[in-house]
Every structure is written in C-alpha cells, then in structure tokens.
C-alpha cells in the first residue's frame, strides 16, 4: 500500500508496499518531505509550470523528488558524466580550464580506466562523455563510444565545440552509436566569438552545425551561454540560424547563464538582469519561436526558492582521474572525491560515508563547502 502525503498541490507517495525496494534513508524524516514539497508548491505558484522554460529546480520535477524521498541513497542514477579529457583546442575566457592551472589539466582518460568505470556502473539512462575539456581530443573517444554502447543501455552524448575534428569524425561517432551531440555556440559574430569562445572560426562552426543538423535531425542540440557580452545579440544568433531553416532539425537549443569565472560562482548578470532577460526570452518563445517550430529552452538558476539541489542524487561525475564526485559543478573535483574507480567500485564510492553525509546535508538544506558558490544552491537574494 502507498502512503500519501499531500502538500499543497503536490502528492508524495511513500512506498511501503514493495519489500524488495530498499527503504529510503530519509523515509522517517517527515519534516524533509513537508519542507521540500512545500517549496516546490510555492515555486509553482510563483512561476507556473512552463514547458518551454526549464528553470533549474524543474530539471527535477516532483516525480524525481518523490523518488529521492522514497529511495534516498539508493535512488537510481539518471545520468552521469565521464570527463574523457581535460585537453582543449580553444581558450574560452569563461571556462574554468582557461584561467586556471590544476593537476588534472591536459590529461586524457585511458581506455583501460574508461572500461573499468563502465563495467562498474549500475543501469543509467544517460551518459555524457565530457567534462571540462574537449572530449573529441581524446584519441580513444570513438572506442569509448563503442564500448559504452556495447556494454550499457544508456543514451550516449557529448558536448563539443565541433571544431577540433573534421566532419567525418562526428559522422563516425554517430555510426558507432553516439545518440546526441550538443554543440556550444555563444555567438556567430566573429568579433563576439573571439571574446567568448577564443579560437573559434564562426563560419566553420556555422557550416558544421548546418551539416550535422541536416544529416542527423533531432540528434543535434545547441548550448548557448549567456553573459553580458552576448546578451543583446541572442536574437541575432537565433535569426541567423532561422534563416538557414536548420533550426527545425535541432533537438533543442538551450540557453544558460555564464557562471562567473573569477570565483566560479554567480552569473556575472545580476539576478534582476537575468530576470529581465528571462522574461523577455519567455515572451519571445511563446509569441514567435513556438510558431516557427524552434525548440528553445531556458535553463536559468536565478529564481531558486531554496529547493534543495538534488543533483547529488540523480547524477554523478567521473573526473579524468577516475574520481567519483557528485556533479559537474564542483570545481576541485579531485579534492572532493567519493572514491577512485581505479582502485574501488562504483557502489563503494557512491555509498561511501562521505557520499552519504554529502547527500544528507543537502537534503536538509545544508551545503557542504564543495558546493560553495554553486548557482544550484543559491536563492535570488544571493545573486
Ligand atoms: C566545459 S564545456 C566542455 C565541452 C566542450 N569543450 C564545449 O565547449 O562545448 C561544456 C559546456 O560548458 C559551457 N561553459 C563553459 N564555461 C562556462 C561557464 N563559466 N558558465 C557556464 N557554462 C560554461 C560551455 O560553453 C559548454 O557548452
Ligand atoms: S571549448 Fe569547452 S572546454 Fe574548451 S575552453 Fe571552451 S568551454 Fe572550455
Ligand atoms: S555543487 Fe553542490 S549544489 Fe551545486 S550542483 Fe553540485 S551538488 Fe548541487
């Protein structure tokens, strides 16, 4: 039988019926359920449920929260990232890699470590084969895609600048079994791009986007990072893509704010700047882009009503050195490791004492030092 808790419009079902399912570590903490779900409810009242706009809390819909509360640390992982390399062909000033020297910079994961990670994984829905770096620069990436395809049921994707390799390389990745490619494009104006994505040739980038989206409809998405530099030019970027007609083939085009690189915390746009931008984009999406079949999504963090970040439950991140960390947002990943897969196994790391404490704290709204400054735990007032 399911016990139901009703909080506002939101119903949480505590599974008490199926003894084969592990009991949540949080199952007896009724206070958490009430608090978390009330926050979702308040959020929905304020902003509505909007399919076009994926505000960060809504990456985790209520059903996901229910699963976390029901299964706690045994929550099935939806997606994970494997940082296949930290090398790169560009020098984007906003990227953590560009302005920082750190031990794991300019390394590539070996095939052997990659296989060990994949062999240890529980079933996951999505695997992103990238981190801070350009994954196509790992010469083993095609072999990694093949191995993950043959040994998991996960959907496989990469995020790429689409400039490090010839087009045939990307075609080969699709043939081997890659499901999706997300291409980063902050601008198609050469001057703006020089400032944001240094080393990019915008004509080549545009040609590559058109070629790949034309050949692989609904397998290509775009990711645009919005900052003070390109904020006013986003409309021009859309227009340029719409003129080619290729926008209809994109799986989606996602916009997200820049995470400010000097301290790697808030967006350089203030909370109110972001709100204006978001409101104006939302209007345009509803009024215009929807009509022309352009699937634009806004991923913005700035209106969090204190909903706990549950990224640490539903995702995991393997660094280039095989450390398991909770998510891609932690900067000093090797310093915040739940375990190293070269010497252990996934379950031991995922359920290590460190990991359990980490998740418990977050669900109680207490953020570990490692999360300091991450936009996923800040409210509008913080920005
Ligand atoms: C770190 S990159 C790695 C993949 C690949 N090298 C690329 O640029 O597409 C992944 C995504 O993070 C974005 N990104 C980089 N620095 C960022 C920042 N400071 N704030 C928000 N997004 C950022 C990039 O634009 C890219 O879309
Ligand atoms: S291409 Fe990607 S990894 Fe390379 S510097 Fe730019 S954002 Fe960073
Ligand atoms: S750094 Fe912490 S708050 Fe940010 S996404 Fe990761 S787990 Fe969540």
Short description:
With about 375 residues, this protein is an alpha/beta fold.
Describe this structure in words.
This protein has a single domain (49-383), classed as TIM Barrel. 35% of the residues lie in helices and 14% in strands. It has 13 helices and 12 strands. It has helices spanning 30-47, 62-71, 96-99, 111-120, 141-151, 167-176, 190-196, 202-215, 234-244, 271-289, 311-314, 346-350, 353-363, and strands at residues 2-7, 10-15, 79-82, 126-128, 155-160, 180-184, 220-226, 253-257, 296-298, 315-318, 323-325, 339-340. The protein has a 10-stranded mixed beta sheet with strand order 9-8-7-6-5-4-3-10-11-12. It has a two-stranded antiparallel sheet with strand order 1-2. α6 links the parallel β5 (155-160) and β6. It starts with a strand and ends in a 20-residue tail after the last helix. Mean pLDDT is 82; it is low at 1-17. S-adenosylmethionine is lined by residues 88, 94-95, 130, 132, 134, 159-161, 184, 223, 225, 256, 258-259, 261.
Give the helix/strand layout:
Blueprint lengths: L1 E6 L2 E6 L14 H18 L14 H10 L7 E4 L13 H4 L11 H10 L5 E3 L12 H11 L3 E6 L6 H10 L3 E5 L5 H7 L5 H14 L4 E7 L7 H11 L8 E5 L13 H19 L6 E3 L12 H4 E4 L4 E3 L13 E2 L5 H5 L2 H11 L20
Parallel strand pairs: 3-4, 3-10, 4-5, 5-6, 6-7, 7-8, 8-9
Antiparallel strand pairs: 1-2, 10-11, 11-12
Helix pairs in contact: 4-5
The structure holds S-adenosylmethionine and iron/sulfur cluster (2 copies).
S-adenosylmethionine binds next to β5 and β7.
């Amino acid at each position: 039988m399911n016990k139901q808790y009703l909080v506002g419009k939101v119903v949480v079902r505590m599974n008490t019926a199926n003894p084969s399912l592990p009991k949540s570590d949080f199952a007896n903490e009724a206070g958490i359920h009430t608090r978390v779900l009330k926050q979702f409810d308040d959020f929905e009242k304020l902003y509505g449920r909007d399919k076009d706009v994926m505000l960060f809390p809504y990456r985790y819909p209520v059903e996901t929260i229910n699963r976390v509360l029901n299964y706690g640390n045994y929550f099935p992982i939806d997606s994970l990232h494997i940082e296949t390399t930290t090398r790169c062909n560009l020098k984007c000033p906003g990227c953590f890699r560009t302005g920082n020297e750190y031990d794991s910079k300019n390394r590539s994961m070996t095939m052997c470590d990659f296989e060990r990670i994949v062999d240890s994984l529980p079933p996951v829905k999505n695997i992103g084969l990238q981190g801070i770096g350009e994954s196509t620069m790992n010469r083993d990436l095609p072999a990694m895609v093949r191995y993950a395809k043959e040994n998991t049921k996960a959907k496989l994707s990469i995020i790429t600048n689409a400039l490090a390799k010839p087009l045939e390389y990307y075609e080969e990745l699709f043939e081997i079994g890659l499901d999706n490619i997300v291409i980063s494009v902050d601008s198609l104006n050469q001057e703006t791009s020089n400032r944001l994505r240094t080393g990019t040739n915008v004509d080549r980038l545009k040609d590559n986007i058109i070629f790949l989206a034309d050949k692989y409809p609904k397998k290509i998405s775009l990711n645009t990072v919005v900052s003070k530099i390109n904020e006013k030019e986003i409309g021009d970027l859309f227009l340029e893509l719409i003129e080619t007609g290729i926008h209809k083939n994109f799986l989606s085009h996602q916009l997200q704010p820049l995470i400010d690189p000097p301290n790697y915390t808030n967006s350089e746009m203030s909370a109110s700047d972001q709100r204006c931008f978001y409101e104006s984009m939302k209007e345009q999406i509803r009024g215009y882009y929807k009509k022309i079949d352009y699937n634009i999504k806004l991923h913005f963090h700035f209106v969090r009503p204190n909903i706990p970040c549950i990224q640490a439950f539903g995702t995991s991140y393997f660094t280039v050195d095989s450390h398991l960390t909770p998510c891609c947002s932690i900067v000093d990943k090797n310093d915040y490791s739940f375990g190293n897969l070269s010497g252990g196994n996934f379950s031991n790391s995922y359920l290590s004492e460190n990991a359990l404490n980490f998740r418990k704290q977050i669900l109680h709204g207490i953020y570990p030092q490692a999360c300091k400054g991450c936009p996923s735990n800040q409210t509008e007032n913080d920005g």
